[in-house]
């Protein structure tokens, strides 16, 4: 069954090219050019992934990004932005986008980035057999990669697919320091200069959610190097 993709892009020539590239990946694409058209499409279809241009003729794509994350927590959201709009990219990531692509972009890069999100969707929806390897148990922290659930002190942590994969990667390597470039390569599956904001924003969102459960020091910044998963915090939380 083809995954449904919502493409929101007002440059009709670019939208045609992007649609063809997505169809090459055997995806069912609905292409619209305004926020109003996007809202109507969302009322009638369930989309696995939305590709959202932040500059649209009838409004700001940032507001739609926030609505999508709130209403469709498992949907993948990829932003397309001009290289000069750094603040919009950061705001979009902070509001829940999974990734962004700077215009102009190569078609090879575009397809590769979409494949990363499709892989995450497949992990969420493909049944797998229970195994001890599916679980990570560190003090008061429990992560189940089969059900995509995380519990801390018995309370469930609500995460997007990308946030879950980032936390899962950290938990598999407690106290090991990773640079932003290493995290981009290992979690997002690509390594390109200029996309470090993707890592920063996801870590900020993770920290906010973890802090709400009393885990404010679970992901530490190692200044000048990167980030690490602090399992000492978990042992304190379990005490």
TrEMBL record:
InterPro entries assigned: CheY-like_superfamily, OmpR/PhoB-type_DNA-bd, Sig_transdc_resp-reg_receiver, WalR-like, WH-like_DNA-bd_sf
Cleaved signal peptide residues: none
A UniProt-annotated Pfam family: Response_reg
Keywords: DNA-binding, Phosphoprotein, Transcription, Transcription regulation, Two-component regulatory system
PROSITE patterns: OMPR_PHOB (PS51755), RESPONSE_REGULATORY (PS50110)
Domain OmpR/PhoB-type: 133-231
DNA-binding region(s) in UniProt: 133-231
The UniProt record lists the keyword S-adenosyl-L-methionine: no
Keyword Cell membrane: no
Modified residues (4-aspartylphosphate): 53
Domain Response regulatory: 4-118
Superkingdom per UniProt: Bacteria
The name this protein goes by in its record: Response regulator transcription factor
């Amino acid at each position: 069954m083809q995954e449904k993709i919502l493409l929101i892009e007002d440059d009709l020539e670019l939208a045609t090219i992007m649609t063809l590239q997505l169809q090459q990946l055997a995806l069912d694409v609905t292409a619209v050019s305004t926020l109003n058209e996007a809202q109507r499409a969302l009322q009638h279809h369930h989309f696995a992934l939305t590709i959202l241009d932040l500059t649209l003729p009838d409004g700001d794509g940032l507001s739609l990004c926030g609505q999508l994350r709130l209403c469709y927590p498992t949907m993948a959201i990829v932003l397309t932005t001009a290289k000069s709009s750094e603040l919009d990219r950061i705001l979009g990531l902070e509001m829940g986008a999974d990734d962004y692509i700077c215009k102009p972009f190569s078609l090879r890069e575009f397809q590769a980035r979409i494949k990363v999100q499709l892989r995450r969707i497949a992990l969420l929806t493909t049944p797998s057999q229970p195994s001890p390897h599916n679980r990570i148990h560190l003090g008061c922290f429990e992560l189940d990669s089969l059900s995509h659930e995380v519990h801390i002190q018995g309370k469930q942590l609500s995460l997007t697919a990308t946030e879950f994969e980032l936390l899962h990667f950290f938990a598999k390597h407690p106290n090991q320091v990773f640079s932003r470039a290493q995290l981009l390569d290992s979690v997002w599956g690509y390594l390109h200069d200029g996309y470090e904001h993707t890592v920063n924003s996801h870590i900020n969102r993770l920290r906010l959610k973890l802090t709400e459960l009393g885990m404010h020091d679970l992901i530490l910044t190692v200044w000048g190097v990167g980030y690490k998963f602090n399992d000492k915090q978990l042992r304190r939380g379990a005490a």
